């Protein structure tokens, strides 16, 4: 086998091992806040994002809001281009990708077998991100997103890391800004934590409210309290 063939096989193996079955389960998990992968950079050793070399040839298209506040989201390559891997979150609009307190919002649901949800510890909702299931060439892929019920998140954007090859990927690919709709009103305590999940003050207030609810339930024997209107 000549040198060129060896290099080709090596590159193929790197590509297959890098993103063949989607971003790993721990891509957006962390033990300590300072260890968060806030920049959404894949663990492709010896590589850097292509953002400064070539503009990303990809768009995130967000459909109209449905009756439950959800939206169909599509990642689409420009004509003649393609991608193999991706990871997408919903986050606060125009918020720097590397901000340590950048939240991830809502629940993603695959529309077909080409994508799979990933749970993120920073997520507001059951699931905080979505990724691919295979490393075949793709020109577009769609999935559904639902916001937390009964909570006005303010302006949001969908942000993506898009991978074309092991050493060719782009970060911070963004959708247009999505304006809030649906629930409008004062944010209850839990909704405030949704919007600002890393606030120590809000975390303490939520824990205190939960303890108060638990105490009231124990006194009553039955019944329930709610954080939705706790202020």
Could you describe the largest sheet, including whether it forms a barrel?
5 strands, antiparallel
Assess the beta-strand content as a share of residues: 25-35%
N-end to C-end Cα span: 70 Å
Helical segment count: 3
Count the beta strands: 11
Assembly level: single chain
Task: Please provide a written account of the structure.
The chain has 231 residues and is α+β, with helices and mostly antiparallel strands. It has 2 domains: 3-174, Sandwich (Immunoglobulin-like), CATH 2.60.40.4060; 199-231, no CATH class. It has 3 helices and 11 strands, in the order H-E-E-E-E-E-E-E-E-E-E-E-H-H. It has helices at residues 3-19, 189-195, 200-220, and strands spanning 58-62, 71-77, 85-92, 104-105, 107-110, 115-118, 123-124, 129-132, 140-146, 156-165, 168-174. The chain has a 5-stranded antiparallel beta sheet, with no helix packed on it. It has a 4-stranded antiparallel beta sheet with strand order 1-2-9-5, with no helix packed on it. A two-stranded parallel ribbon has the order 4-7. It is elongated and about 65 Å long.
Q: What is this structure, in a nutshell?
A:
This protein has helices at 3-19, 189-195, 200-220; strands at 58-62, 71-77, 85-92, 104-105, 107-110, 115-118, 123-124, 129-132, 140-146, 156-165, 168-174. The protein is of the alpha+beta class. The longest helix is centred in the last third of the chain and has 21 residues, at 200-220.
């Amino acid at each position: 086998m000549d040198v060129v063939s060896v290099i080709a096989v090596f590159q193929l193996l790197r590509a297959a091992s890098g993103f063949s079955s989607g971003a790993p389960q721990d891509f957006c998990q962390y033990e300590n806040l300072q260890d968060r992968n806030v920049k959404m950079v894949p663990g492709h050793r010896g590589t850097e994002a292509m953002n400064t070399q070539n503009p990303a040839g990809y768009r995130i298209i967000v459909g109209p809001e449905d009756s439950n506040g959800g939206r169909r989201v599509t990642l689409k390559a420009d004509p003649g281009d393609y991608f193999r891997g991706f990871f997408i979150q919903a986050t606060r609009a125009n918020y720097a990708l590397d901000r340590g307190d950048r939240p991830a919002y809502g629940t993603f649901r695959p529309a077909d077998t080409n994508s799979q949800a990933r749970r993120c510890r920073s997520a507001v909702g059951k699931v905080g991100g979505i990724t691919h299931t295979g490393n075949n060439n793709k020109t577009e892929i769609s999935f559904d997103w639902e916001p937390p019920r009964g909570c006005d998140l303010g302006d949001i954007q969908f942000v993506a890391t898009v991978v074309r090859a092991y050493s060719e990927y782009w970060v911070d690919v963004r959708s247009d800004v999505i304006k809030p709709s649906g629930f409008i009103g004062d944010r209850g305590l839990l909704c405030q934590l949704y919007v600002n999940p890393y606030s120590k003050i809000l975390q303490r207030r939520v824990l205190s409210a939960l303890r108060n609810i638990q105490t009231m339930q124990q006194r009553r024997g039955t019944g329930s309290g709610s954080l939705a209107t706790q202020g």
